[in-house]
Design a protein that fits this description.
The chain has about 350 residues and is mainly alpha-helical. It is built from 21 helices and two strands. Strands 1-2 form a two-stranded antiparallel sheet. Helix 1 packs across helix 2, helix 9 packs parallel to helix 12 and helix 15 packs parallel to helix 18. The longest helix is centred in the first third of the chain and has 17 residues. It is elongated and about 75 Å long. The C terminus is likely disordered.
């Protein structure tokens, strides 16, 4: 598996050992346990059972009974057990290990492929909640969860799709799962969710894509799936609350030439220049880092960026930004002002964003 590694960037005899974007944590609030709020149909029996599991020494026995009910012939028993396990895994982190040890993972994975949307949604969401425990991630993946989660991305309810995206993100935090997730067909479906989902769906899709696309193979899949169009549209919409997230996803894609070509074809250069003019400090820094990669090996792209009027806002940024953004802005200004012939000393593979 080929993963993009950060390396130093040398340009015009100057060496920069840190041109990375160092603060993606606040742009990508991690996918937490399910955010569906309170459930309207939790019986008093269920509430008593949840309290018992939380406080009784018999919790292991009760969990085993819930897991057994997942295989019940009664649809109602399955639904009740799935709901209760979902709530247990959501509300008490220590239960996540207990539920996994009780053997719940495989029957929950089976529910993800259910034709009953209620069972599917609870199966997906309980797997998401269990995946929040690092100890469970490998077991969930090795138990065959990836393909059913991709199936939920394709055919699930809106909540099932969002939570499947979050669960795949969690599984992708194990590096070797990234290629498996990409090869299972997740990337085009995440692109569709990014383009057509609600705000939460867009956010969850972008977060999953950001993680998955650290692998070159997945970058190509994302570009081929048409990711550039929704990314550019979201970056251009300052009211979407998706500018940062979309730009961070773009920043991991543009290390491959296919992404740079698609970005230009979708009208991304004017959008990036506008971000440098009117975006937040962090948005400006991301946009400059992206344009550095786009421009450094292409005289044509440099000319396009210059024609869009990038130099004046870059000069302003170089004089008023942080040390990191100043350095990036100055480097891009030098690149844009150099003679428009031949190749620059820098190569795309030498820049870390």
């Amino acid at each position: 598996m080929e993963r993009e590694n950060a390396v130093n960037y040398t340009y015009m005899g100057r060496s920069f050992n840190d041109l990375s974007i160092n603060d993606d944590s606040s742009a990508f609030s991690d996918c937490n346990s399910d955010r569906s709020g309170e459930f309207p149909t939790t019986s008093s029996h269920s509430r008593r059972l949840l309290l018992a599991c939380a406080n009784s020494e018999n919790s292991d026995e009760l969990l085993r009974q819930l897991v057994s009910d997942l295989d019940s012939c009664s649809i109602d028993e399955k639904k009740q057990a799935a709901l209760e396990l979902r709530l247990l895994a959501k509300n008490k982190p220590e239960n996540r290990i207990k539920i996994a040890k009780a053997g719940a993972i495989k029957p929950l994975i089976s529910l993800i492929s259910s034709s009953d949307p209620y069972l599917q949604e609870n199966g997906v969401t309980t797997i998401l909640n269990l995946s929040l425990c690092d100890e469970n991630k490998e077991l969930i993946a090795s138990s065959g969860a990836i393909k059913p989660l991709v199936g939920a991305l394709r055919k699930g309810t809106s909540t099932a799709k969002e939570n499947a995206a979050c669960a795949l993100l969690r599984l992708s935090q194990i590096e070797e799962n990234k290629v498996a997730i990409g090869r299972s067909g997740a990337i085009p479906l995440l692109v569709i969710l990014l383009e057509n989902g609600g705000f939460r769906g867009k956010k969850d899709a972008s977060t999953a894509l950001y993680s998955l696309c650290t692998v070159r193979e997945n970058k190509i899949k994302a570009v081929e799936a048409g990711i550039m169009k929704p990314l550019v549209e979201l970056m251009a919409d300052f009211g979407s609350n998706m500018v940062d997230k979309s730009a961070f996803v773009l920043s991991v894609l543009v290390s491959v030439p296919e992404a740079r070509t698609a970005l230009v074809e979708e009208g991304g250069i004017p959008v990036l220049v506008e971000i440098i003019e009117v975006g937040s400090q962090r948005q400006k820094e991301i946009a400059v880092a992206i344009l550095l990669q786009v421009c450094e090996d292409s005289v044509v792209y440099r000319a396009m960026v210059a024609r869009e009027g990038a130099i004046p806002p870059l000069v302003a940024l170089s004089q008023s930004g942080t040390n990191r953004s100043n350095q990036k802005a100055e480097t891009l200004i030098e690149l844009l002002r150099q003679p428009r012939s031949g190749n620059s000393a820098a190569r795309p593979s030498d820049v870390s964003v």
